[in-house]
């Protein structure tokens, strides 16, 4: 946990310096220097909470056949994995979010929300972002039912998780058409949306509602994909 | 006999990884795709700004190309040393130590991952395009530097991977800390060192020598002076830095392996 927080902080510095160099001659894409610094550090803190990086637990259980035990339980595996993931996110809030934010605040001026109500919107947005991230990861892991070695799809997730979430650069840096396409995918809802809410950029209501919609749609997709997968399940080994 | 054993281990690894063909192809292509993230990020950044710390897109692309190619070469060769913590925890290292082969050599071939090879393609393309696009007055010395710099950078990154893996003999579960220097080191070298804050740039650029991977060789190739004020001769010092790194890493690795105490299981 501390090791991750340390690494996230080093990347926080790298990202902040790039973004500050971009904003050397004034605001870019509607972000000023303090907003960009906050974007970098809050983003570094949130990746551990919403879990932008790869997650293979379900795919591994499918590959080894352990998934059978999960399916025998009286709880839907989607629900139990979601509960575990939300618990993980709550725990991550304590270290992985606070350490990078504290380091960032120590070294750079950050733009904090002006209205207290924003914090409430941030909390809601982060919850929806976590659920969206979980459901998308779950969906990709489910591919292991068809594709025993699901490392390929996992790598695809890495591209989406880094480039399309706003982790690498803020989405508004991309051309207009690319932004329009990206907001139709789950990715920006995992990081860009909560960060925009935090920076009070755009309408918080729209961003939170959009986050709720993204969370609902991805969860529904994961649930229906699981139904199809279980119907044709062949248990390996014995 | 010894080379033969390494070759056989390597061939077995590659054959094994080619078994799931569709997934492997997907993996190879995606590995190539993954590395284009950094180039796309660079393009997105230059869409909203004309220069970073006074360097235009051509110059920064040259640094990125150098850093990416160097890192990818090192990653394909020894990147799997990231798995040393697993070997320590599971006790596999005991078996490795018992065999009459080099520990380092075995670890490198044991987990050699052929799908990583897809990553080099991007580095070669980016570096090639950068060399054409950037405004370089070619001299024999610069041609030599252009050829040697990515290899020197690769040696430095390979040494960082090795030294990082060696620290796992003490830290065991601190793999992510090493990522800050390996992957962080790649990202650092992809941009001009002059762009970073004073102490951060000095720490990564000069104490860890990462300025010599992308920034300094790019200055030498472009014939530019350094806003940080480093002397011109130091821009050609990448090979020397990589030799220092290689010796340092070899030393740290040896101490690390000697320090190893089996879990006994």
TrEMBL record, chain A:
The keyword Membrane applies. InterPro entries: ABC-2_transporter-like. The keyword Transmembrane applies. Keywords: Membrane, Transmembrane, Transmembrane helix. The chain crosses the membrane at residues 36-53, 93-112, 118-148, 155-173, 204-223. This is ABC-2 family transporter protein.
UniProtKB/TrEMBL annotation, chain B:
The chain crosses the membrane at residues 28-46, 53-74, 143-172, 193-216, 236-257. It holds the Pfam family ABC2_membrane_6. The keyword Transmembrane applies. Keywords: Membrane, Transmembrane, Transmembrane helix. Signal peptide: none annotated. InterPro entries: ABC-2_transporter-like (IPR010390). This is ABC transporter permease. It comes from Cryptosporangium japonicum. The lineage of its organism: Bacteria, Bacillati, Actinomycetota, Actinomycetes, Cryptosporangiales.
